[in-house]
Design brief:
With about 240 residues, this protein is an alpha+beta fold. It has helices at about 40-50, 65-75, 75-90, 95-105, 120-135, 145-150, 210-215; strands spanning about 5-10, 20-30, 110, 115-120, 135-140, 155-160, 180-185, 190-195, 205-210, 215-225. About 35% of the residues are buried. This is Peptidase C39-like domain-containing protein.
């Protein structure tokens, strides 16, 4: 069941002698989606280099050709986060391959001459998300993780750029950015999130303290807000 909570946390907001209590702002029931076919296959794909098409769930993405799926699945973290938000808000959409086709037409991803891909590109994505789905997108640049997380409210989820190394937060990381995760709550000194390429226990409904996420965070992202005319639709 989808649910949004806004309630006092169990601990003071700061260890400064004050009695100010922080709040837990959290969406419950946000669907977790992996950027590959099945969440249970992510560890095998990222840790053991398993063929993503050995997972029978790959066909649910709508890709007709295995080669296209192999090429795109590892690049669609942002589109996967967006799909989770659309599903949570009950907004109809095509399967992932169809979403990608439309996103490509609107410049959200751009093919390079060297065969690589640029994207997800924030501002074309923002224009497409609002025109096609009625979701308002605010692009954030040079913003700390606590400020970005604080944007989560009853109608807003947040996508932030982190290093994919965040799937192993106990390890030292070499990079910041390059991967997108979906924030759906904050409180108790940290954030709740879905990582579309994560492995348990940091895959779905994961929580990490701000200082840990900050090591991986590139200080950019997007706030996704369900617009007024969509409120009250079944989720």
């Amino acid at each position: 069941m989808n649910e949004f909570t806004n309630q006092p946390a169990g601990e003071p907001a700061a260890h400064d002698g004050s009695d100010v209590v922080s709040r837990v702002i959290r969406h419950h029931g946000v669907p977790y989606l992996s950027q590959w076919g099945s969440p249970g296959w992510v560890a095998r794909i990222v840790e053991e280099d398993a063929d993503p098409c050995d997972d029978p769930g790959w066909r649910a993405s709508g890709f007709a050709l295995p080669g296209d799926y192999r090429f795109w699945a590892k690049r669609l973290c942002g589109l996967t986060c967006f799909e989770s938000a659309l599903d949570y808000w009950g907004i109809a959409h095509a399967p992932r391959a169809g979403l990608l086709e439309d996103a490509l037409r609107h410049g959200v991803y751009r093919m390079r001459e060297d065969g690589g891909v640029d994207g997800l590109i924030y501002r074309p994505f923002a224009a497409w998300a609002e025109a096609a789905f009625g979701v308002r997108v605010e692009v954030m640049t040079d913003e700390g993780i606590e400020t970005s997380a604080a944007r989560v409210d009853a109608d807003t989820l947040v996508i932030v750029s982190v290093s994919p190394e965040i799937r192993y937060p106990e390890r030292a990381n070499a990079h910041q950015g390059g991967h997108l995760i979906l924030l759906h709550g904050h409180g108790d000194g940290g954030v709740w999130f879905h990582n579309p390429s994560g492995v348990a226990p940091y895959q779905a409904d994961a929580w990490l303290p701000y200082e840990t996420v900050a090591r991986f965070h590139a200080r950019r992202g997007m706030a996704l807000t369900r617009t007024r005319h969509l409120r009250g639709k079944p989720a």
